[in-house]
Amino acid sequence: MDQAKKNKQFMMRYANAMNNEKNRNREFIEQWTTDQKLVEHILFFDQAFPGYTGEIEEMTAEGNKVIMKMRMKCKHEGYLGNIAPTHREFEVSAVAGYEIDNEKIVRTWLISDQLDLMKLLGLEKDSLTKP
């Protein structure tokens, strides 16, 4: 089996594991990645949107890199920075790139539509600039 296919299988196992909120703790996450930015992002996102789930819509791989388009189902139950919980449920899309070495994520980048997220949370532009 070629490396790209192995990495796609690894990422499927990772995505399935992260869909279980009981697994979203530092110790478990670090079994999958050495990228501390990814660890912090997952912990931050889980604090703001506990119980979120992600569905992979598309995945491509080449060599040691995997790109995934995902749809996240969330409910805003915790603070998002200084934004109080809105208790709104919504779905939002994101695209993430992963570099994998020896079945560990070593580097990650993420693109999401943060303006859309703010709209889905019902926040107006003015509320984001006021203390």
Please give a structural write-up:
Strand 3 and strand 4 form a beta hairpin. With 131 residues, the protein is α+β, with helices and mostly antiparallel strands. The radius of gyration is 16 Å and the shape is globular. Helices cover 34% and strands 31% of the residues. The protein has 5 helices and 4 strands. It has a 4-stranded antiparallel β-sheet. It has helices spanning 3-18, 26-29, 36-48, 114-120, 125-129, and strands at 53-62, 65-75, 89-100, 105-112. It starts with a helix and ends with a helix. The longest helix has 16 residues, at 3-18. It has a single domain (3-120), classed as Nuclear Transport Factor 2, Chain: A (Roll), CATH 3.10.450.50.
